[in-house]
C-alpha cells in the first residue's frame, strides 16, 4: 500500500511538472525560457548579448544574407568605456533601428551589466529601468518596450546553485518582463577571453588572420556544431566580439545543412503560449 501510495505521489508530481509547462527556477520567477524548458525540435534561437558594438552591423549583414532573425540583449553602458557620458544606444542608434526594421527582437540586458546575485531588489529594478529609459530616449519613436530580459552572466539562474538567490532575483524580476535564458550546453564561449587579433572596437588591433583568432573561431564552431542532434537550442553569442561575426556564417550554414530553422524569443512565446510577449506581460500570467 505504501509503495502504491508513493508511486501515486510520484505520478502526481510528474503530472504536475508536465501540465504546468513551466520549469521556472522558483515559482515567483517571470515566465520565459529557462534551462530544461521545452523547445521546438530542429529550431535554433540565435541570441546576442552585450551590444550594440562596432561589430553589430556586421552581424546584421550576416543575418540578412542568411535570411535569419535573431534576438539581441542590449546594454547601454557596456561601450564605450572611455567616455561614460556617451552610451551605446546613442552611438549605435542607426544599428538598433536597422535591427528592428530587419525583424530582430531587442531585449534588456541591464544598464551596467552587473551581477544580480548580490544586488538588492531596488538596484536590480534600477538596472533594468535605467537601460530601458535610455533606450527609449535615444530611439524615440523606434523604441517600443523591452519586454524580454536576460540577466547579465545568466546570473543567478545559470551561474549559481543558491536557491535563495534565485528566489530573491526571481521575485525582483517579476512584473519587469519575460526572461530568456540560453541552453547551457550552447554557450558559444565567445566571451571567454580576448585573443590576439580581436578587440571590442575597430582599429589596428584587429587581425582575423591571426592564428589565435582563427583558433578561437574553430573552438566556437566546434563547441556548437558537435552537440546538435536535432534538439531545439538557444545559442548564446556576444556581438561585442569580432570572432563571433566571422564564424557566424559557418555556424548558420552548418545548422541549415542539418535541417535547422531559426527563430526569435518572440517566436518562442507564440510557439509555447500562442501569444506575443506584450500580451503575456500585460496579462501577467502565472
Ligand atoms: Zn552579458
TrEMBL record:
Cited InterPro entries: Glyco_hydro/deAcase_b/a-brl (IPR011330), NODB_dom (IPR002509), Polysacc_deacetylase_ArnD (IPR050248)
UniProt-listed Gene3D superfamilies: Glycoside hydrolase/deacetylase
GO function terms (MF aspect): hydrolase activity, acting on carbon-nitrogen (but not peptide) bonds
Superkingdom of the organism of origin: Bacteria
Alphabetical list of SUPFAM superfamilies matching this protein: Glycoside hydrolase/deacetylase
Stretch forming the signal peptide: none
One GO-annotated biological process of the protein: carbohydrate metabolic process
NodB homology domain residues: 42-263
Protein name per Swiss-Prot or TrEMBL: Polysaccharide deacetylase family protein
Source species of the chain: Leptospira sarikeiensis
Amino acid at each position: 500500500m505504501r509503495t502504491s501510495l508513493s508511486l501515486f505521489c510520484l505520478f502526481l508530481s510528474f503530472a504536475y511538472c508536465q501540465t504546468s509547462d513551466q520549469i521556472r527556477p522558483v515559482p515567483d520567477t517571470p515566465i520565459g525560457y529557462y534551462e530544461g524548458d521545452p523547445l521546438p525540435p530542429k529550431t535554433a534561437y540565435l541570441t546576442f548579448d552585450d551590444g550594440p558594438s562596432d561589430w553589430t552591423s556586421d552581424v546584421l549583414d550576416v543575418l540578412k544574407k542568411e535570411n535569419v532573425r535573431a534576438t539581441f540583449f542590449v546594454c547601454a553602458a557596456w561601450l564605450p568605456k572611455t567616455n561614460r557620458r556617451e552610451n551605446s544606444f546613442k552611438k549605435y542608434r542607426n544599428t538598433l533601428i536597422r535591427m528592428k526594421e530587419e525583424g530582430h527582437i531587442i531585449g534588456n540586458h541591464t544598464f551596467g551589466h552587473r551581477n544580480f546575485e548580490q544586488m538588492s531588489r531596488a538596484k536590480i529594478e534600477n538596472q533594468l529601468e535605467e537601460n530601458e529609459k535610455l533606450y527609449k530616449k535615444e530611439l524615440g519613436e523606434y523604441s517600443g518596450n523591452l519586454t524580454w530580459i536576460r540577466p547579465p552572466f545568466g546570473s543567478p539562474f545559470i551561474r549559481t546553485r543558491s536557491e535563495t538567490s534565485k528566489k530573491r532575483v526571481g521575485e525582483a524580476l517579476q512584473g519587469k518582463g519575460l526572461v530568456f535564458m540560453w541552453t547551457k550546453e550552447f554557450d558559444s564561449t565567445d566571451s571567454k577571453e580576448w585573443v590576439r587579433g580581436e578587440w571590442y572596437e575597430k582599429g589596428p588591433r584587429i587581425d582575423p588572420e591571426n592564428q589565435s583568432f582563427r583558433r578561437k573561431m574553430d573552438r566556437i564552431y566546434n563547441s556548437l556544431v558537435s552537440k546538435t542532434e536535432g534538439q531545439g537550442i538557444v545559442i548564446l553569442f556576444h556581438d561585442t566580439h569580432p570572432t563571433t561575426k566571422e564564424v557566424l556564417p559557418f555556424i548558420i550554414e552548418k545548422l541549415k545543412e542539418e535541417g535547422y530553422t531559426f527563430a526569435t524569443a518572440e517566436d518562442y512565446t507564440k510557439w509555447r503560449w500562442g501569444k506575443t510577449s506584450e500580451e503575456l506581460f500585460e496579462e501577467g500570467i502565472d
